[in-house]
Amino acid sequence: MSDLDLHSPADPDGADLLAIPCTLMRGGTSRGPFFLADDLPQETAARDRVLLAALGSPDRRQIDGLGGAHPLTSKAGIVRRSQVAGVDLEFLFAQLQPESDRVDTTPNCGNMLAAVLPFAIERGLIATGPETTTARILTLNTGMQCEVTVETPGGRLRYRGDTRIDGVPGTAAPVRINFLDTAGSVCPAMLPTGRVLDRVRHATADGGQREIAATLIDNGMPMVLVRAADFGLAGDESVADLNADTVLKERLEALRLACGPLMGLGDVAGKNYPKMCLLSAPTAGGTVSTRCFIPHVCHEAIGVLAAVTVATACVLEGSVAQGLAVAGSGLLRTVSVEHPTGEFSVALELDPRDAQQIRRAALLRTARPILRGEVLIPAELLNPHP
What is the DSSP letter of 127? Predict the structure, then answer.
C-alpha cells in the first residue's frame, strides 16, 4: 500500500466502507476503473475481492458497482512503474463478468491497453514529451510488450481530436499502439497445432460428433476462426439475433471446448478464451466480415487483439479465411476487419523470409477518463470472516 490504508474506514466517522482511488477510463470500445498497483492489496485473493466489489459482480445488473452489465464494461486495469530495463510501465488487465465471481488475469485486452498511458500520465507515473509521449508497456498477463504513443502538445495530454473508431461515438485524439511480440500470447505458438487449418471434431447436442474446418490461432488473442456458412449463417446477422440463437451458441461452445486442449490451453470451460469468431466475405469494402463471441456473448464490435489475430489469419495462405478475405499482396498490408458496428483497420508487416510470420502489427485507438475519484467497497472484504 502507498498513501492509502485499506485497513481504516473511508472517513473519520467510522463508516464501514473503504475508499480506493481510481479513474474510470474508456479504452477503445471497453471501459473500466484503473488503479495504481500500490492502491490495491498485493495478495491476489484480497485484490480480487476488491475488484469484484468495485465492479459490482456477481450481479447481472452490477447495480452495486461500477460495472456496465456487459463483458466489455466489466473490466479493470492495474498500472505501475516498471523495474524491467527498457520498459516504462507494467499493466495488469482484469476481466470480470457481470454474473461471475471470477477475476481472470490470463488474457490481454488491447482496448483497455489504450488507456494505460493516459492514466499513467494523469497519475504522474511518467513525464510527458513536448509534442508526443511514447512509453513501452509490458502487459503482465502474457508478457507482451508494445509501444504506445499519445499526443501531448506543450507537455499536456490531449484527449480531443479527429480520430474516429467504430463502436465509440464522436472523435478523439489518437492512441497509437505498436505491438512488438503478439505471437503466441497465451498459446504455445501463433499456430498452436502447427497447422494453418484444422478439422476439429466436437460433440453435438444429440450426443453425436461433428467435424468442422477451423483456424486455431493466437497472435495476441487465442481464437477459433470458422466460416459462418459452415453454421448455416450468412455472416451478416445482427448481434441480437446471434445472441438469441441458443442452438448456435451451444454449437460454438462445444467446438470451443474441443479446441482448448488442441491449442495447449487445457480445459477452457471456465476461461474467457479462446474467443470464437465467424468469418464471411466482406460486405462494406473491407477485407473480411466478422461476428465474434467473447466467448459466450456476441461482440458488438471486435476486440483490438482479436482484430490483430483475425487480420493475421487473412494473410496466411491456407487459413479458413482463404476464399473469403480480400487480403491484397505485399509485405505491408492494411487489413480492414468488418464487424457489426463498423470496421477495424490493422497494419501488418510480414516477414520477408517467411510470409507466414508477422513482424509487426500496429493500429489506432482512442481513450479518455470518464471519472476521477474513489470507489467505495465494504471494509470487511479485506479481512473476511472465516
Answer: P
Report residue 165 as a C-alpha cell.
Answer: 473508431
**Interatomic CA distance for residues 293 and 273, integer angstroms:** 10
Nearest of 280, 275, 146 to residue 217 by alpha carbon:
275
- Number of helices (H) and strands (E), helices first, in the chain? 6, 16
Can you tell me the distance from the alpha carbon of 130 to that of 136, in angstroms, rounded to the nearest whole number? 18
Q: Which three cell numbers stand for residue 294?
A: 467473447
The CATH topology of domain 17-174+367-382 is: Diaminopimelate Epimerase; Chain A, domain 1 (3.10.310)
Q: Hey, which CATH number is domain 198-363, 3.30.1330.10, 1.10.287.130, 3.10.310.10, 3.30.70.330?
A: 3.10.310.10
Label residues 100-130 b or e (16+ Cβ within 10 Å = b). Answer: beebbbebbbbbbbbbbbbbbbebebbebee
| Rg of the chain (C-alpha set) | 21
Strands of the chain, DSSP E: 17-27, 30-36, 75-81, 89-95, 132-139, 144-151, 175-179, 198-203, 209-218, 222-227, 275-280, 288-293, 332-339, 342-351, 354-365, 367-378
pTM beyond 0.85: the answer is: no
How is residue 371 written as a grid cell? 471519472
Is residue 277 within 8 Å of 223, Cβ to Cβ?
yes
Helix, strand, coil fractions of the chain, as percent rounded to 5: 20, 35, 45
pLDDT in tens, 27-43: 999 999 999 999 999 99
Distances, alpha carbon 194 to alpha carbons 48, 164, 185, 189, 312, in Å:
36, 37, 15, 8, 15
Residue 335 near residue 315 (C-beta atoms within 8 A) = yes
Segment 260-313, tens digit of pLDDT: 999 999 999 999 999 999 999 999 999 999 999 999 999 999 998 999 999 999
